[in-house]
Specification:
The protein contains seven helices and ten strands. By secondary structure, it is α+β, with helices and mostly antiparallel strands. Helix 1 runs parallel beside helix 4, helix 1 packs across helix 5 and helix 2 crosses helix 3. The chain starts with a helix and ends with a strand.
Length: 284
């Protein structure tokens, strides 16, 4: 999978878990079957854009950012992002020089034989490709069986791509740390934005995210080391989750997030949580 497809799968799995929906529940509440959702959530196939919209709706998640990510993924999946190489120009044969002897009959037979071999190879390729496509269509779809395991037990083949210090300052979604994270604490700002401190035990890292924010709002996170921040740049950012980069944490670390509203007279609001403990909101 491309990095964009990997990130899309991670985001969809997080939405499903947050919404508390099994594959059967997804099939009942959307236009897609259990087997289809299993393929979408394990990266075996690319979901239609409508499936992304429906999962966002069920999870009360704005769909702007995920649909943009879907479009990038689909362009790679379909091959539209790879421009076809131009065919080499075919030079017309030049007339023979007056002093040049015409090709012998043997040469003509050799050229004709080569053309025949090319034609036979092309026909063979078409036949083999057609047979393979037919077999693919006739093969039973194993994922469509009714005895699929529940969603919680479906194996996910993509492991986190960093741990601890290696995650510092990096994207939690792209590095697959956003799969089944813990929410250390939640907070609602005076402007109505929602802020969460997130933690991945597998990655040994934490980050913050917020939504319902306004253009110009900013969110910072730190765990005693570097501070990482994200700000809302445009309406697309404001319509979806915005994530900070990750910061390394260990059990007992205190993670602190600070929200800074775009308005000049707005107050900075901070809250913190201990890894393994409860969050304590404060306002500065």
């Amino acid at each position: 999978m491309t990095p964009e497809h990997t990130r899309l799968v991670a985001a969809l799995r997080e939405l499903r878990i947050r919404a508390g929906l099994s594959l059967a529940a997804l099939a009942e509440r959307t236009a897609y079957s259990k087997s289809s959702w299993e393929r979408y959530l394990n990266g075996k196939s690319l979901p239609p854009s409508q499936a992304v919209r429906e999962l966002c709706r069920l999870a009360a998640e704005p769909d702007g950012r995920l649909l943009a990510l879907w479009e990038i993924t689909e362009s790679h999946w379909s091959g539209r992002s790879v421009s076809a190489a131009p065919a080499p120009p075919v030079d017309a044969p030049s007339p023979p020089h007056p002093d040049q002897a015409p090709p012998s009959a043997g040469t003509g037979r050799q050229l004709g034989g080569n053309r025949l071999l090319v034609m036979l190879a092309s026909a063979y390729t078409v036949l083999v490709g057609g047979a393979a496509a037919l077999l693919f269509l006739l093969l039973p779809e194993s994922a469509a069986r009714d005895d699929e395991p529940p969603a919680a037990s479906i194996p996910f083949s993509i492991a986190p791509q960093c741990h601890g210090a290696a995650c510092e300052g990096r994207d939690p979604m792209r590095l697959i740390c956003g799969i089944d994270p813990d929410t250390l604490a939640s907070y609602r700002t005076a402007t109505g934005a929602h802020v969460e401190l997130r933690h991945s035990r597998k990655c040994g890292a934490s980050w913050a995210r917020f939504w319902g924010a306004e253009i110009g709002d900013r969110l910072d996170v730190t765990a005693g080391g570097p501070t990482h921040g994200v700000h809302i740049r445009n309406k697309d950012d404001a319509a979806a989750f915005a994530y900070t980069e990750m910061t390394e944490v260990v059990p007992g670390s205190t993670v602190r997030a600070c929200f800074r509203p775009a308005s000049a007279d707005g107050e900075r609001e901070c809250f913190e949580a201990r890894v393994g403990g409860d969050g304590t909101p404060t306002r500065e």
